[in-house]
What does this fold into?
Amino acid sequence: MNQLKRLKIIIQGAVQGVGFRPFIYRLATELNVKGWVNNSASGVFIEVEGTEIILETFLSRIPQEKPPIAQINTLETTWLDPVNYTCFEIRHSSSGEKTAIVLPDLSTCSDCLQEIFDPNNRRYLYPFTNCTNCGPRYSIIEELPYDRSHTAMKTFTMCKWCQKEYDNPLDRRFHAQPNACPICGPRVQLWDKKGEILANQKNAIYFSIDALKKGEILALKGLGGFQLIVDAKNTESVTKLRQRKHRPHKPFALMYASLEAIKNDCEVNDLEEQLLISPQAPIVLLKSQNKHHLIPEIAPNNPYLGVMLPSTPLHHLLLHTLDFPIVATSGNLAGEPICIDEKEALNRLANIADLFLVHNRPILRPVDDSVVRVMGGREIIIRRARGYAPFPISINDSSLTNILAVGGHLKNTVAILKKNQVFISQHIGDLSTVEALKSFNQVMESLNKLYEFEPEIIVCDAHPDYVSSQYAKAQNLPIITVQHHYAHVLSCLANNNLNPPVLGVAWDGTGYGDDQTIWGGEFLLVKDNTPSLMKGFYERIAYFRTFKLPGGEKAVKDPRRIAISILSEVLGDNDWIKLPFLETMTTKELNLLKQMLSRNLNTPSTSSVGRLFDGVAAMIGICQNISFEGQGAMALEYAINEFKTEQTYPYKIKGSTYPLIIDWQLIIEHIVEDIIKKISHQEIAAKFHNTLVEIIVNIAQKSHEKNILLTGGCFQNKYLTERAIFRLKQEKFIPFLHHNVPPNDGGIALGQIMAAILQKQ
Ligand SMILES: [Zn+2]
Ligand SMILES: [Zn+2]
Ligand SMILES: [Zn+2]
It folds into this structure.
């Protein structure tokens, strides 16, 4: 029993940059075992010598006492003969195959926070304070293994005090790669629009606070990119920011100094509170309180606010003395990706910002703020970036590896499969601008470099015109194209670790269909892995009756066109002509539209539920012009405003064999009657949502499948989603939602990877 043994341990998971090696060192010292620990690109390696009993204790205490943010995925052990180590040491990193997990950037921990507000601490008011429990990771890493020489901190040589912390295994900053202090670390500067220095260090922060108090717009170089910041209580400044950013309606996110301040303006439940104060510190969508003290320009016609707490010391320092929350929105023009470089910012944000608060720690990749919404009692990530990316999604065993998926077009993300881990990139954005395309290419390059990844198969959307699809085709690799809504369903499948068979309800704004029309109101039955179904691995068992989009893209921007298209199809020419929403349109415009429709001029057909939402929102007069995707659906959701009804509109399901057609004619006829009867928007909106839910239940029953997956942009709608869950459960189905991968097109890349796996199995 007292014989010496040697135990070799290999641990994989989120174990680098989280204080894991010092933890092992402390444990080894405490138990008096000898050996070593090191980081390699594929995980943490440990060898320890001692008696069997002590080594068993050592092993069992690892998962029990690991650092809070570490996550162990696998732990392998091998018993060996002793080699008589004389001490326990932390060895230098070795290289190896690069599958180690890169941690996301984490918000400032309470220990660091205490230090920056302690006048006696050497890091008093220092905006780059961090430790192994917090601070930047993904936004500063160049390559694995995660060592200082591979990060944006490589040019900052540590002073002797920082070095001492870094070398001491018992210190919270032992091997904290971004470790820094006012003497040796990055510094802030305040610039004017020309890039002239106005102030340095603490003065730069004081001057910035003064500027915010005066209502000026500050471009702030944050953690993963520039943010535009302004006093959220100053109507004039917020309006100015909207005008300069060309962003008329889309809600702005807010940052508050404290949870208490948030609770003054918003309703916060327990889960929402946990999310706000979590190391991920995302933007959480919260219901604003009736008595809230904010101006309507923050989120026009929107009862929800996107709210976050400060996530870096710099944000804490700015907010600390302000007695108002700030708007903190991405530093870009509408539709473009977030800006990360200060020289570039001067150029791109010159017409938006008055002042630039910058620093000299390079941002190696853009990482936006993440957005989450609590629905059905759990959090759903709407935008997956800071705090979450690039944490991988583990999937059931796959015989394939080295697959690259390039995602969709809107809210683009890309993903790579390595072994059975899918690494999904941070949110890139809409690939419509040159800037976005540049960012898409950079993200791809950086993923390849970080994980030494060489794609063997490439997967893209079936839409031939998406720039992501064109990129895929240009790579000269075996290519798999995947139907958009099938990718949505598989994304939800992977996110819930499910296997077929399932019924996927994929509702969104737009996606290229197998029949070359625009889909978006789809029920896809995914059976097993045999391609026995109509079109590969899924069967489109039902969809919404199609309608025309007069002017294509123009109808997406002006949903009154959709309303007119639907109304003239259902009611011919007359009954609806006096509806109030038409007062905003000239007779000439109306006649032109009617002509387009009757002659089928540039009027693509769609089965999209997202567009149906837009059309109904326009019809009842709550949405005239759209400046961002999903605005119509949002307006209709918010129109309900807590109205309670169990009523629905009648509808028909046509056909006796698949695919069934969901005919919305009766829904529209009854909505028009309700508008004429002056029934409230609240009631109409609630009845419309309830009807859609009953359609889901109805098709679920016809499909004979138990597992119902709700996916696509429409399931960011809380009322729709929660009622669908409730009704499906009532009817003994098992509903599944997305969780840590967005239901919108940000989740497409994961679905594409799954499609490739299913196809190749
Ligand atoms: Zn810390
Ligand atoms: Zn230092
Ligand atoms: Zn989609």
